């Protein structure tokens, strides 16, 4: 199947734009890969330290240069439901490695914070920066240079992007990402949202709210709505960094364990010691990045990836832009409706055909590059499958993805899309550049022209709602929420309040230099506004009552004030000292000083 002309043209321009940095990157990882396993050149003292705690068989294998050694980078902790299942994985991986004559060692752990716990709390101001901390933490583990390949154990919001940045920094090493899977279905997401709104209106109390939340988030595994965590899993599969069919299998099941063991053996099969050497830096090229963006649009994925994909691509020397993402949205139909873009959760998506069905539909319509190299081998077509447990109860067998969707309301075909485009696009105008996700916003709500109401914290908007002062049509401007100001926290707690006002018939929207989240929903929200207020952006010069026009379909974000007046305005003076201390925020002051703009990935790595 020939790749769609629009997809091909965007890929070509990314390739041309990236050529100098990509060529330099490739030359570096090829030189490192050509040097062979570093373990063989370590001094005897170095090597003895590296395997001192191993058993006799592992020591013997690690003493030579023929047996591959697999590094494990794990984001395990037992507070996060998505990562708690990883407690068992190191032993599964070690056992599987020994079965094929290899060894495996936990190279290091990385922090893993839960945005669900920190939403609306001070800890959320560390969330985005944790991505880059995770990359650096993984680098510390891999710096021992004991490994021929790596498996990365991570699931959630900043964790997978941070691990990808690390994997590409060590791009001479093969990499396979191993997920834990989503928790089983609990309280329906629309019911959870209904209770949240009732609580915001004071119609139910905290006991009712906690009961609802506990029924939604009720066991081990990823939260089941289609936020950043599950968007991460989609990306790892469609970019070829998972084994086929492994994204959305529930934790602690025989198939989940079989897939983990299979991933281990595959990671050992593709080292430089064998005949299928597949370094991660070769897998993630311009075509794989475009495939990831197309997958994000086709599934209505997380707005956070307008940051993460840029940072991940940059780690491989690839220069992706918001304009590329926006243009790819125009070329990609929406094929999945998973909450908040529908009522289903990821378990329903997987049961309807899941990633195999989606990949086949996109491939058959020329919307994905098939001529990629993946951790599984040549081409993306082998991912158009459904993984099952073998008759022996230990192995994985694969069969072609179903021809028909198991639920056309959840997953549809390319000739009957839910929307002609992915619904994630760039906004631009005199306020700056921003991102909006319109796939869950009703068409009649995508254009809002209304006066600004200014807020400098989430708490201020919440207090205004409780006081009943958010009357009439308005656009809430929540500013000084960018990475330089306070680490760019998610403002997801604003959604229930603004949603209630929408339901009352008011026209409302949000404009912010902060983030919303993978759960961005029905409220039109111009997020990631760049330049941010702290950097002197126009968002910091908007005044109470200024008219703003946000047009999600036209892609514009305009402050309707005379340009001559705007030229005389100064950025509002806001005391940010309260964001600089407590919950570890003082330790991240260097990050706030070094971080780049949102439209460059909001990274501290330049």
UniProtKB/TrEMBL annotation:
InterPro entries: 6-phosphgluc_deHydtase, Dihydro-acid_dehy_C, DiOHA_6PGluconate_deHydtase_CS, ILV_EDD_C, ILV_EDD_N, IlvD/EDD_N. This is Phosphogluconate dehydratase. It is an enzyme of class 4 (lyase). GO terms for cellular component: cytosol. Its EC number is 4.2.1.12. PANTHER family: D-XYLONATE DEHYDRATASE (PTHR43661), PHOSPHOGLUCONATE DEHYDRATASE (PTHR43661:SF1). The gene is edd. HAMAP family: Edd (MF_02094). It comes from Aureimonas glaciei. Pfam families: ILV_EDD_C, ILVD_EDD_N. Belongs to the IlvD/Edd family. GO terms for molecular function: 4 iron, 4 sulfur cluster binding; metal ion binding; phosphogluconate dehydratase activity. [4Fe-4S] cluster binds at residues 156, 223.
